Amino acid sequence: MKINPRYYPAIIIATYVIFLLLGILLGFGPERGGEGRGNSSLIRLAFITLETLA
Amino acid sequence: MTTAARKKPFSLAKSRRTIQWLAVIGTFVLGLRHIMPGEASRGGSFDSFCAFGGIETLLPYLFTGHLLKSTNLLNFSVLIATLGVALVAGRAFCGWLCGLGAIQDFVAEWTRKLFGERRHIRGKQSKTILPLRLPAIVDRPLRYTKYLVLGIILIASLYAAFPPLREFCPVRAVFSLKMTSLLWLTLGIFLAGSILVERFWCKYLCPLGATLAIFNKISPVRIVSDNNHCNNCGRCDIECSMGIEDVPHNLDHPECVRCMECLNTCARDGSLELKVIAKVK
């Protein structure tokens, strides 16, 4: 499918913003003073699920 | 008498230049924020906004559950966003959104002007002596250096407290405003390299570019050439800032930063087109 090149910048920016929001929604957000540590809620959920299954 | 407003034709090159300037200003603002007091309490350091910081801290996070110092969970979101763009449009991040890539494009343009090029004519070889195009025998092996840099950093990240590239990172050297002697040295090498060779850092050293390179082969949004229309005039080869040879036959080349300069330069309708390819070869 052919794309009009004028939409290319919008495609890139929209993709970047969507995936950035997706990352933040997955729990990889900025944490106050959270440098060098941190646990994503997604990772926590994954661990809990694995523990439950085990 | 009324005068109808003339609509200016759309320029992809101008759009790219605008986005690149915004990327540079945005990164510079992050650097400014970085030197403000109490930055840690406002959600992380300058390094927290780096996509490559996400790669550097990924292995320690997976193996130990701890992030490297000066990184933050936000690094993973920035990395996911960068990988998202790569998944859709290959290395378009490098060509459009990377502040460092933009600086290199600007330096190359200013260098050409400094060496006497009054106005750049699309598709016409610049007569200025700088930036150079290194001969293939030197250029090709040097391009593999970035993969070596990536490998070394990934291994080093398992043993490091801070991101391994941190003290030599050109993004910090250009934008962070917190300079050390090593960062001054990095800045000097980066600027000298960018004056000598167009997109020096991207071509030879950038480990993020090395990570994103593979996506050029699988991303669905790409430029496609039509051999029936292309007359191999070579205008696109001249305009390619990454120095890819025979551009129409190397449109999914790992070095391509999807800047669209080839598409802008092509004078033959239908020869190069932007398409969504559902089936990847």
Topology:
The complex is a heterodimer of chains A (54) and B (281).
Chain A: H1 8-25, H2 41-53
Chain B: H1 12-35, H2 51-64, H3 74-89, H4 92-97, H5 99-114, H6 136-143, H7 145-157, H8 170-176, H9 181-196, H10 200-204, H11 207-212, E1 221-225, H12 235-239, H13 261-265, E2 272-276
Antiparallel strand pairs in B: 1-2
Describe it for me?
With 54 residues, chain A is mainly α. Chain B has a two-stranded antiparallel sheet. Chain B is globular. With 281 residues, chain B is mainly alpha-helical. Chain B has 13 helices and two strands. At the A-B interface, helix 1 of A face helix 1, helix 3, helix 4 and strand 2 of B.
Task: Spell out the key features of this protein.
heterodimer; A: 54 residues; 57% helix; B: mainly alpha; two-stranded antiparallel ribbon
Main beta sheet of chain A: none
Summarize the helix and strand pattern of chain B as letters: HHHHHHHHHHHEHHE
The mean pLDDT of chain A is: 81
State the secondary-structure class of chain A.
mainly alpha
Percent in strands of chain A: under 5%
Rg of chain A computed from alpha carbons, rounded to a whole number of angstroms: 17 Å
**Fraction of residues of chain B in helices?**
40-55%
Point out poorly predicted stretches of chain B.
none
Question: Order of SSEs of chain A, N→C?
Answer: HH
Described by the principal axes of the CA atoms, the overall outline of chain B is globular
Give a brief rundown of this model.
The complex is a heterodimer of chains A (54) and B (281). Chain A is built from two helices and no strands.
